[in-house]
Design a protein that fits this description.
This protein has one domain. Helices cover 76% and strands 0% of the residues. The protein has nine helices and no strands. Helix 1 packs parallel to helix 4, helix 2 packs parallel to helix 7 and helix 6 crosses helix 7.
Length: 216
Amino acid sequence: MLGLREVTDLRPRLWRLMPGLVLGGIGIASMVRADLGLPPWAVLDHGISRHTGIPIGTVSILVGAVVLATWIALRERPGIGTLLNIIVLGVTIDLMLALVPETDNPVARAAFLLVGVFIWGPGSGLYIGAGLGPGPRDGLMTGLAARGVGSVRAVRTGLEIGALAIGWLLGGRVGIGTLAFALTIGPNVQFFLQRLTYRAPHEARAQTPSPEPIAA
C-alpha cells in the first residue's frame, strides 16, 4: 500500500509520463505519414500490420505485450509507466493516423519526418524522466544485459537490428527516416532527459547547495 509521500509524488510524475507517451505516439504517427522510413521497432510493427491488416498502433500494443511477457523469465519488474507505455503509445498512434490523412506533398512529408524525429526527444525526456518504469523494450535490454548476454549497448544494438531486419523482411518501411532517427535519437533524448527528469521536492532540496556565508 502506498504511503502519503508516494501518492503525493505519483501525481506530478504521471503529469510528465502521459504527455511524454502521447508525444512519442505522435512522433511515430508523423513518421508513418511521412512514409520515408520508421524507427526499427516501428518498422517491425509496420511489417506485421501490412501482413495482418491490424492497425500499426494496435500491433505496437500487441508486440509490447509480448516483449513484456519475456520479463517474467528475466525476473524484471514492470512499473505503471511500463504498462501505460504499451497502451498509450499504441492508442495515440492509431488515433493520430485516423485524424491525419496520407499525403503525396513532398514538403508535407518532409515536415512530418522532421516533427516525428524531433518530438521523440522531449517525449522520451518526459516519460523516462518521470521514473515510473522503463518501456517494455528498455526492460528487455537491461534484463538481458544483467544476465550476461552482453553490455547494455551491445544488447540494445542487437535488439534494434533484429527488429529492423524482421520488419524489413515483412515489408516494413525503411528509409531516410530510419537513418535520421538512428543518428539523432541518442543526443536528442539526452538533451531533453537532462532538463525534464522529475525530482521530488525533497530530492531537489537535498541537491541545492547551501548559500555561501557572507564575509564580515
